């Protein structure tokens, strides 16, 4: 699968990569524009490559409801008639009684992520050891652990075990934020018109956005951009934005009175030249 399309994505509900036998998952092809011709496909560990509704799953509009069994473990994705495809997701249905609940879809840097080690019996939340890339990272009596403000260094292969057994391993992907604020990196001059843009990395990029200055909401724009006419020193501050896909980092915008300074220098220079000329006459 090499022809990746940015206009299509596969969503997983609930968003996890491991499931107990007979649990259900909803897989949806979310396509920008015309979704006709897109199909949900899978490739299982047993080598079966097929579409939802043929040997497995129940189609419901653009979604597929799947009642899972161990032989359904594999890779799932959306594909168009022309061969374009969405992101792919690994789903694991172990024969054992312990799973690790971890996100199937990529998480964004800065998010808080909770991993749960679940036993199919009762109680489900036994004391658990959590591992990353084969090394023990934490033991939790509640059976769950939270990674605050995840970073790229948290990306890796996770598993857990408790008194009832061990879960399969699942990969957690961490991506950079998908929303940025386009604002001037250099100081702007008083009187200039300044446009700020809240951009999403996907499609469409210009979603409705809220703009904040120094932590307070100042404007909501359906176009995803806002213009400050004739900026003044009072517009200087810390800006950020958010839309339905997330929040941007904060950026400082500096406003200077550079034009006034230049005028002063020119006046002083002209005065200096006049004084020099007069001294020569004297």
UniProtKB/TrEMBL annotation:
One of its GO terms (cellular component) is external side of plasma membrane. It comes from the Eukaryota. GO terms for biological process: cell surface receptor signaling pathway; immune response. The keyword Ribosomal protein does not apply. One of its GO terms (molecular function) is transmembrane signaling receptor activity. Residues 94-175, 177-256 form the Ig-like domain. Keywords: Disulfide bond, Signal. This is Ig-like domain-containing protein. It comes from Salmo trutta (Brown trout).
């Amino acid at each position: 699968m090499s022809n990746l399309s940015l206009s299509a994505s596969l969503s997983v509900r609930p968003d996890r990569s491991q499931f107990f036998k007979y649990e259900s998952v909803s897989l949806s092809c979310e396509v920008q524009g015309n979704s006709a011709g897109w199909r949900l496909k899978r490739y299982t560990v047993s080598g079966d490559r097929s579409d939802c509704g043929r040997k497995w799953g129940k189609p419901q509009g653009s979604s597929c409801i799947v009642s899972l069994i161990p032989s359904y473990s594999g890779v799932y994705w959306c594909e168009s008639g022309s061969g374009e495809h969405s992101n792919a997701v690994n789903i694991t249905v172990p024969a054992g009684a312990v799973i690790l609940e971890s996100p199937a879809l990529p998480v964004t840097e800065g998010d808080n992520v909770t991993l749960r080690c679940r036993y199919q019996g009762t109680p489900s939340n036994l004391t658990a050891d959590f591992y990353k890339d084969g090394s023990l990272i934490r033991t939790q009596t509640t059976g769950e652990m939270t990674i605050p403000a995840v970073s790229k260094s948290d990306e890796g292969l996770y598993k857990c075990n408790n008194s009832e057994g061990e879960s399969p391993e699942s990969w957690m992907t961490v991506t950079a934020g998908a929303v940025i604020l386009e604002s001037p990196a250099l100081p702007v001059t008083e009187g200039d018109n300044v446009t700020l843009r809240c951009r999403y990395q996907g499609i469409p990029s210009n979603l409705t956005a809220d703009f904040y200055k120094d932590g307070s909401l100042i404007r909501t724009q359906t176009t995803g951009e806002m213009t400050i006419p004739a900026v003044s020193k009072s517009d200087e501050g810390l800006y950020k934005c958010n839309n339905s896909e997330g929040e941007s980092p904060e950026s400082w915008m500096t406003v200077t009175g550079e034009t006034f300074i230049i005028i002063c220098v020119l006046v002083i220079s002209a005065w200096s030249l006049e004084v020099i000329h007069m001294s020569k006459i004297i």
